[in-house]
Each structure stands twice: as C-alpha cells, then as structure tokens.
C-alpha cells in the first residue's frame, strides 16, 4: 500500500500537477485583478449614478441587499479569459505535440527502404554476384 503511494508521488505527474495549480492560481489572481480594476468600473458606469453601479438594492439604504450584476459579469469574464489562456497556451500546443508524436511513430518503415534495397543490388552486382563484397563498402548495407 505504501509502495503504491510512493510510486504515485515520484511518478512525475504530481509535480507537473502542482506546478499547473500554482501557475493557474497566480494567473487567475492576475485576471481577477484586471477585471476588477478595468472591467468592473466600466460595467458600473453603465448602471448610472443613482444605482451605485450595475445593480440595485432590494431595500433602500440597506447595503446587504444590493444585487451586484457587475460582480457576476466580472466573474464570467475572468473565467472566460482564464479558460481561453489555458486552452491556447497549454491544451492546444500539447494536443498538436501528441498528434505529431503519434504520426512520427506510425511512419516508421517496417523493412528496408527502396534506397537500401537498390544499394544492396548495386553492391551485389559490383561484387560479381557471388555474394562477396567489394572492399570499402559498408557491410550493413
């Protein structure tokens, strides 16, 4: 049981996952700061001066009853920006790399290529067809 846990820890995937979580958290904080500093004020300006932003009070004068649409839109924009960056920076390039690696494995020839076969015929012809190789020719051909 402990051996399985040790294998899991030292497999390498957990380190990659930890790095991804830390980078994702830092990036999310950056995008959240951007949307709060730039997007939310623009959205609040659309609400007008009387409402205090893009939202309304359920009970006038009670701050706890304010429904803030700007904050919800902000969260949606933060999510979309974060998801787009993760997709275009991490997912798409790794998908292309995996496809390229898969293609590279499929294209390996099973036997000698036509060039090698032709060189073998030339070698055999120069050797007189007796199977003896001319000096200086590579014996692996």
Automatic annotation (TrEMBL):
GO cellular component, one term: plasma membrane
Membrane-topology descriptor: Multi-pass membrane protein
Keyword Transport: yes
Superkingdom assignment: Bacteria
Gene3D superfamilies referenced in this protein's UniProt entry, alphabetically: Large-conductance mechanosensitive channel, MscL, domain 1 (1.10.1200.120)
Location in or out of the cell: Cell membrane
Transmembrane segments: 12-34, 72-93
Main location: membrane
Keywords, in A-Z order: Cell membrane, Ion channel, Ion transport, Membrane, Transmembrane, Transmembrane helix, Transport
UniProt GO molecular function: mechanosensitive monoatomic ion channel activity
Record Pfam families: MscL
Entry-linked PANTHER family: LARGE-CONDUCTANCE MECHANOSENSITIVE CHANNEL (PTHR30266:SF2), MECHANOSENSITIVE CHANNEL MSCL (PTHR30266)
Quaternary structure note: Homopentamer.
Similarity section: Belongs to the MscL family.
Main function: Channel that opens in response to stretch forces in the membrane lipid bilayer. May participate in the regulation of osmotic pressure changes within the cell.
Protein's UniProt name: Large-conductance mechanosensitive channel
Record organism: Aeromicrobium flavum
Classification of source organism: Bacteria, Bacillati, Actinomycetota, Actinomycetes, Propionibacteriales
Gene for this chain: mscL
